[in-house]
Write a structure and sequence with these properties.
The complex is a heterotrimer. By secondary structure, chain A is mostly helical. Chain A has helices at 2-27, 31-60, 64-94, 107-112. Chain A has one domain (2-99). Helix content of chain A is 82%, strand content 0%. In chain A, helix 1 (2-27) packs antiparallel against helix 2 and helix 2 (31-60) packs antiparallel against helix 3. Chain A is elongated. The termini of chain A are far apart. The longest helix of chain B is centred in the middle third of the chain and has 31 residues, at 61-91. Chain B has helices spanning 6-24, 29-50, 61-91, 111-123, 154-171; strands at 100-105, 127-135, 138-145. The two termini of chain B are 26 Å apart. The chains are: A mainly alpha, B alpha+beta, C mainly alpha. Chains A and C meet through helix 1, helix 2 and helix 3 of A and helix 1, helix 2 and helix 3 of C.
């Protein structure tokens, strides 16, 4: 029973961070800030839910196959998410997407286009 | 095009086969043999794209334990700190931001170290690595930072990746 | 034992994924839409894992695994496409 309470708390923490990321995606003013907010979902939001599920799969259900699959999914998202972020950020900058309010420091624009 | 090296093939084979076993999770002889054949074919074809340096660096116990210490102790603490900071900004109405792109020098020589540092920076909310360049043998990262408080160069580098880089330098140097 | 807490968690994550779809429909640029789609993919993965533990069927875990694998591939594809397209326009 204790394990289940711990797992519930972990899932709740994950849901809170996922809610923060969703609010950021909906309300942030420019493209790159939205990207930053979406990282919140893919790290602690995902890890909280997956750790809770892992605890339940190991200690309550005693199902080794399910536990291994959950761990593989969590590791896969954690390893591959930065690759997508790099690709999208670089592609968006090269495609000429700029925030409406001008950035104070913009070294990449200075070095690439002068 | 690089030549295919034997340790690289062995390392790729082990990773592919472990992934196969984890996915299928059945230990009959037929499935294991099929997995081994497919993993060997993949390793022979793709090892030269994945591994350019020493493949079995982690057999040195000092490096192995400092790497474990990095991924278990240093990185999660930074991750949680950055996440709480980002969540505060999001719940506070998304007004408290000051985005900008800074250019930061990196003091890691190894390819693995640079890749691990770039991915760690991207994985902490609040910073994204956008581009990697090299000038006069010194690698530079262009990092998008949600709240620029320091001028770009050494000081911004210390604020963004000081502890992460210190932990990684113990592993790959 | 009933598993109502897992069901509630799965529903919360699914609702959050539906909320990110607003940005997917509204977003002014292609990068915005892609970021929202990637986040929706991750959230759907979490919801599917929780729902699989709730219902006790393993098939949802396999689907979540495939979704996690292909989510990154389409993100990188769109990123590469944007990069090349931006170079062509100038």
């Amino acid at each position: 029973m204790t394990v289940r309470i711990i797992a519930d708390v972990l899932i709740a923490i994950g849901a809170i961070f996922a809610l923060a990321g969703t609010i950021g995606i909906l309300k942030m003013p420019d493209t790159y800030s939205r990207m930053q907010a979406s990282t919140c979902i893919a790290t602690l939001g995902m890890l909280g839910a997956m750790l809770g599920a892992l605890l339940i799969a190991i200690f309550v259900k005693a199902d080794a196959g399910a536990a291994v699959k959950v761990a593989v999914i969590a590791l896969l998202i954690l390893v591959t998410n930065p690759l997508g972020s790099h690709a999208i950020a670089k592609g968006a900058y090269k495609a000429g997407i700029r925030p409406e309010k001008k950035m104070e420091v913009d070294d990449l624009g200075r070095d690439l286009y002068e | 095009m690089q030549k295919t090296k034997f340790p690289a093939v062995v390392a790729t084979f082990i990773v592919c086969f472990a992934f196969w076993v984890l996915l299928t999770w059945s230990f009959t002889a037929q499935e294991l043999i099929a997995g081994a054949v497919v993993s060997l074919a993949v390793a022979l074809f793709a090892a030269r794209f994945f591994i350019h340096e020493k493949a079995f660096w982690f057999l040195n116990p000092l490096k192995f334990f400092s790497g474990l210490f990095y991924w278990v102790c240093i990185f999660p603490v930074e991750l949680i700190k950055a996440n709480v900071d980002m969540a505060k900004r999001c719940f506070g109405g998304c007004k408290n931001i000051n985005p900008g792109i800074v250019k930061v020098p990196v003091d890691l020589k190894s390819e693995y170290g640079q890749a691990a540092l770039a991915n760690s920076i991207t994985l902490t909310p609040g910073t994204i690595t956008m581009e990697v360049t090299e000038q006069d043998g010194q690698p530079y990262y262009y990092i998008h930072w949600i709240d620029v408080t320091k001028p770009s160069g050494k000081e911004a580098g210390d604020a963004i990746k000081g502890t992460l880089e210190k932990g990684l330098r113990r592993v790959w140097e | 034992m009933n598993w109502i807490d897992l069901l509630i968690g799965a529903i919360v994550f699914a609702v959050l994924a539906a909320l990110t779809l607003i940005r997917l429909g509204k977003g002014p640029t292609a990068a915005d839409r892609m970021v929202a789609g990637d986040s929706a993919d991750t959230l759907i993965c979490c919801a599917m894992v929780l729902f699989s533990l709730f219902s006790g069927r393993g098939i949802y875990l396999d689907i979540a695994l495939v979704a996690a694998l292909f989510g990154v591939i389409d993100t990188m594809l769109v990123g590469r496409y944007l990069e090349k397209e931006g170079g062509k326009k100038k």
